[in-house]
Amino acid sequence: MSVFELADARGRRGTMTARQILDDAERNIPQQFADQPELRDKLLKQIGTVYDRMTEDAPLAMILEVRGAVRLHSTRDPNQRAAPQALLHAGDRLSLGADAQVQLVILSDWHKERLRPGTEATVRRKCCEPPTRSASGTTTP
Predict the structure, then answer these.
(1) Distance (Å, rounded) from C-alpha 130 to C-alpha 16?
(2) Helices 37-55 and 18-32, interaxial angle, to 10°?
(3) Is the pLDDT of residue 135 over 50?
(4) Quick check: 17 and 50 in contact, CB under 8 A?
(5) What percentage of the chain reaches a pLDDT higher than 90?
(6) pLDDT over 50 at 137, yes or no
(7) Which of 39, 88, 103, 108 is buried most deeply by CB count within 10 Å?
(8) C-alpha dihedral, 101 to 64 to 22 to 53, nearest 10°
(9) What is the pTM of this model?
């Protein structure tokens, strides 16, 4: 179904939120534009931009469990500590020591993630991602 067909005057699909419409579009665009990779990538990037704007002030994850050496690098509060029930925002980074155990819940879909000891992870909309390494060997969150 096209994102433009979602405005059903008879309400057959019921009321949909902007997030549900974006989720549907994000799920369907890769198949609908499989033969047009540039357009597909541009559309997905635009959806990501909209999501970023929608969630810029909203927490994306919450720490459920934390043990061992864990450091939180918060984008909002440099004094925030990694503790159960701490809310995490986009770009927040967790540095885990070799003895660390951390479990998070991602608030967009309520799935839980356990982070690996001895790693770093950056909070994103759908998950916590390890930092990426560029070809030059530098690390970016």
Answers:
(1) 33
(2) 160
(3) no
(4) no
(5) 52
(6) no
(7) 88
(8) -90
(9) 0.67
Kindly state the tokens that stand for 97: 């020591």
Strand partners, 103: 65, 114
CB 75 within 8 A of CB 92: yes
Structure tokens at 114: 């356990």
SS3 string, the chain, reads CCHHHHCCCCCCCCCCCHHHHHHHHHHHHHHHCCCCHHHHHHHHHHHHHHHHHHHCCCCCEEEEEEECCEEEECCCCCCCCCCCCCEECCCCEEEECCCCEEEEEECCCCCEEEECCCCEEEECCCCEECCEECCCCCEEC
Distance from C-alpha of 17 to C-alpha of 54, rounded to nearest angstrom: 12
The mean per-residue pLDDT over the stretch 42-69 comes to 90
Per residue in 30-41, pLDDT (tens digit) is: 999 999 999 999
Is the Cβ–Cβ distance between 94 and 121 less than 8 Å? Answer: yes
Rg (the chain; Cα; Å): 18
Determine phi and psi for 46, rounding to 5 degrees. -65, -40
